[in-house]
Design brief:
By secondary structure, the protein is an alpha+beta fold. It has 5 helices and 10 strands. The strands form 3 sheets. Strands 5-10-6-7-8-9 form a 6-stranded antiparallel sheet. A two-stranded antiparallel ribbon has the order 1-2.
């Protein structure tokens, strides 16, 4: 019941953004996103990590991939954080123990979001990097098996219900 209430709140906040500047297109819908602050004022490392991750936007999915020829979700995260000399474990199942757990309300640019996407399982198997968080609206970049490296929104039903935890490594 809490998840449904939070989802409704996120959807209301998401749909009430009036000063939209950017459009995020997903397979099922197009949503306007309010893009007030693109840079973190107090964490330039987070800005650099996210900027580096955006260099792979549109790259196809490839299991075990870490280059523009193909990228998987943990490869995107490891490669992006390595650009700032921040080592992380290579696999999502090990990465879920890195850094500190944080409440979803506290996420900021550069934090990691972990998901369980397998049916009837809460075992973490997917990770993304927060690119923007404002007014309860959380965007993240990740490598999806169907669309490659893309930006998604936690308010999307699929990602909302697959969400497991957020962690801060910066």
């Amino acid at each position: 019941m809490k998840k449904i209430a939070l989802l409704l709140l996120l959807l209301i906040t998401f749909s009430s953004c009036k000063s939209s500047k950017r459009v995020i297109t997903t397979k099922s819908k197009t949503a306007k996103i309010d893009s007030r602050s693109k840079k973190s004022v107090n964490n330039p490392k987070a800005d650099n990590v996210v900027d580096y991750a955006f260099k792979f936007d549109g790259v196809r999915y490839k299991y075990g991939g870490t280059t523009k020829k193909g990228m998987d979700c943990s490869g995107l995260v490891v490669t992006s954080f390595n650009s700032e000399d921040i080592p992380l474990p290579r696999s999502t199942s090990e990465m879920v123990h890195a850094g500190d757990w944080i409440d979803l309300k506290e996420v900021t640019k550069g934090d990691l979001l972990f998901f369980a996407t397998a049916k009837n399982s809460r075992r973490v198997n997917h990770v993304g990097i927060v690119t923007d968080a404002f007014n309860g609206n959380v965007e993240f970049i990740h490598a999806s098996t169907s669309n490659g490296v893309i930006v998604s929104n936690l308010a999307e039903k699929y990602w909302y219900f697959a969400f497991v935890q957020a962690r801060r490594v910066l």
